[in-house]
Structures are given as C-alpha cells and as structure tokens.
C-alpha cells in the first residue's frame, strides 16, 4: 500500500473511533489534537500529531506547543515528547496515531509525576498590581474636549436636523449637472 492509502485508512479509523469524543479534534485531514485528562484537571495536557507526506513510513510530527499546555514546564514537555518518540520508533511503518494517543492516556500519571503547575494567574495579577500605581496618575488627567466658537456651533446646527444628524442626501452629487457636463 502507498502512504496516501495508509493515511486514508487511518483517517477513517480515527474518525470512527473518536466520533463524539470531546477530547479529540481533527485540525485537518493530516493533523490531530487529543486532550489527555479531563477539563479542569491541572495535569491535563494536549498532544498534536501531524502526518508527513510519507507517514507511516516516516515518523509524524508531535507537538505540545498548544496554548492549553502553557502551564506545563518545558522540561516536562520534553520528557513527554521523548517518551512519545520512543513509542514512534517502536511503531514505525504502521498506523500509530491512535496508539500514541492511547499510550499517552495510559501513562498520563507517569508523564506528569514531576509536573508542578506554573501558576500564571499569580504572575499576571502581580504584574497588574505592580503596574496599577504607575497608570493611576495618568488616569487623573482628563482629555480636553475641542472647544467650538459660537459661529462654529451655529454652522454645525444649521447643517444638521434637531437630532444632530445630517439631512438625507447632503453629500449627493447633482446628477443632472454631471450628465450635462459629460454629454454636451
């Protein structure tokens, strides 16, 4: 079988296996994401697998660069990717996307044993609280409104109706005048 036929068969299998699974997401016919762990689980992570043109004879591209994984340290990510690459080497030449997702699900606790969640909310709140005193004095200044003279106000009032809107057709071109100039 050719690589494209293998990919088509695996794509059909993945669609049927993960139909209705909220953790699985097909980004494109050759790129997939799977969330390992439940929503709200601090040890949950997201794996993205993208097939190359010659997949499964060549290894897929495995990534953990999704925004979902921002609370995981880079050392833990590298550890997970290294273990997944070992599984790729063992399954090279066969359809392995399902196998990799299941391997990650089965070994989630082992993968995340050294995981200490990076608490980004405290660092953001610290940054905000540090910057707040600096921005407070500038907020005291109020922008001055443009001052109009009585004549300018009167002219503006004459152009608009009682609601402050310009009358319908105020910027229309005199069609008859234009046609006279162009056709005569």
Report what the structure shows.
It is a single chain. With 184 residues, the protein is of the alpha+beta class. The protein has a domain of 110 residues: Ubiquitin Conjugating Enzyme (Roll), CATH 3.10.110. It is built from 7 helices and 4 strands; from the N terminus they run αββββαααααα. A 4-stranded antiparallel sheet has the order 1-2-3-4, with helices on one face. A hairpin with an 8-residue loop joins strand 2 and strand 3. About 10% of the residues have low confidence. InterPro entries: RWD_dom (IPR006575), RWDD4 (IPR042770), UBQ-conjugating_enzyme/RWD (IPR016135). This is RWD domain containing 4.
Gist?
InterPro entries: RWD_dom (IPR006575), RWDD4 (IPR042770), UBQ-conjugating_enzyme/RWD (IPR016135). With 184 residues, this protein is of the alpha+beta class. The protein has seven helices and four strands.
List keywords for this structure.
184 residues; alpha+beta; Ubiquitin Conjugating Enzyme; 4-stranded antiparallel beta sheet; 4 strands; 47% helix; UBQ-conjugating_enzyme/RWD; RWDD4; RWD domain containing 4; RWD_dom
Which range best describes the helical content: under 10%, 10-25%, 25-40%, 40-55%, 55-70% or over 70%? Answer: 40-55%
What is the level-2 CATH architecture name of the domain at 3-112? Roll
CATH topology name of the domain at 3-112: Ubiquitin Conjugating Enzyme
Quaternary: single chain
Strand and helix order: HEEEEHHHHHH
Spans of at least 5 consecutive residues with low confidence: 120-137
* CATH class placement of the domain at 3-112: Alpha Beta
Question: Strand order of the main beta sheet, please?
Answer: 1-2-3-4
Mean pLDDT: 77
- In percent, how much strand structure appears in the residues? 5-15%
What summary fits the major beta sheet? Answer: 4 strands, antiparallel
At the fourth level of CATH, the homologous superfamily of the domain at 3-112 is Ubiquitin Conjugating Enzyme
Number of strands: 4
Query: Could you give the distance between the termini?
Result: 76 Å
Count of individual helical segments: 7
* Secondary-structure content class: alpha+beta
**So what's the overall shape?**
elongated
Radius of gyration: 31 Å
């Amino acid at each position: 079988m050719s690589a494209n036929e293998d990919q088509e068969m695996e794509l059909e299998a993945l669609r049927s296996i993960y139909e209705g699974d909220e953790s699985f997401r097909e980004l494109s016919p050759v790129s997939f994401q799977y969330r390992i762990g439940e929503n709200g689980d601090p040890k949950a992570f997201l794996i993205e697998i993208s097939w190359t043109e010659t997949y499964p004879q060549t290894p897929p591209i495995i990534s953990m660069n999704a925004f979902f994984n921002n609370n995981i340290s880079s050392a833990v990510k590298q550890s997970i990717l290294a273990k997944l690459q070992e599984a790729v080497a063992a399954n090279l030449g066969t359809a392995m996307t399902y196998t990799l997702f299941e391997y990650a699900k089965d070994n989630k606790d082992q993968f995340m044993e050294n995981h200490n969640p990076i608490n980004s909310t405290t660092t953001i709140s610290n940054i905000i609280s540090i910057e707040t005193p600096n921005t407070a004095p500038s907020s005291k200044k109020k922008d001055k409104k443009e001052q109009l003279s009585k004549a300018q106000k009167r002219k503006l009032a004459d152009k608009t109706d009682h609601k402050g809107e310009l009358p319908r057709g105020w910027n229309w071109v005199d069609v008859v005048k234009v046609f006279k100039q162009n056709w005569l």
